[in-house]
Design goal:
The protein is mainly α and about 180 residues long. Helix content is about 75%, strand content about 0%. The chain folds into 2 domains: about 40 residues, no CATH class; about 130 residues, no CATH class. The protein has 8 helices and no strands. Helix 3 packs across helix 5, helix 5 runs parallel beside helix 8 and helix 7 packs across helix 8. The longest helix has 23 residues.
């Protein structure tokens, strides 16, 4: 079909559409579309948390590949990091390790989040940061060979700080404001 004929046919079809009587969808169809639109505009907090946990779990596993602290990663006997551990005050060392471990995942979560997801979490995201850090710490303690030290609780503080910092940085890099 030549280009002009196709254009004329498109125009005629559009004219018939404009002149046709309006069609109303069934009430069930209309309600289903509105439900789906609302769901897209207001994601559920558990779904958002699931997305963030998946991103952070992946980043945490990648971070463990270079972290000697808990004896889990491939770098379990790296001289430089063990030297830093021996020279630094244990509270500062654990704080820094927690910060670094959680920072990467939080940064990626902040970059992956959209405005609606951040609103779905609301102010509860700070509790999520702390809860994630505690759960990550406890999981690493169960997996790792290091004995429990009261000073290693600073890891949780560092993790929460890293979460807040990384998430905020990721959000700002993306240009989102909530």
């Amino acid at each position: 079909m030549p280009h002009g004929d196709r254009r004329q046919g498109d125009f005629e079809e559009f004219a018939r559409f404009v002149e046709a009587a309006p069609l109303r969808p069934r009430a069930q169809t209309d309600a289903a579309i509105l439900r789906q639109a609302r769901r897209g505009q207001n994601p559920s907090p558990p779904a958002v948390l699931g997305k963030f946990l998946a991103v952070q779990l992946s980043a945490g596993i990648a971070t463990l590949a270079v972290c000697p602290q808990f004896g889990v990663g491939a770098a379990a006997h790296q001289g430089l990091l063990h030297g830093l551990h021996a020279q630094a005050h244990p509270a500062l060392y654990y704080l820094t390790c927690g910060l670094i471990f959680v920072l990467f995942g939080a940064l990626l979560s902040g970059l992956a989040a959209n405005r609606r997801e951040l609103k779905a979490l609301g102010r509860g995201r700070h509790a999520y940061f702390l809860g994630y850090s505690i759960c990550a710490y406890l999981t690493l303690m169960l997996l790792g060979s290091e004995s429990f030290l009261l000073l290693s609780m600073f890891w949780i503080v560092g993790g929460a700080m890293g979460h807040w910092l990384g998430f905020s940085l990721g959000r700002r890099l993306k240009g989102l404001r909530v």
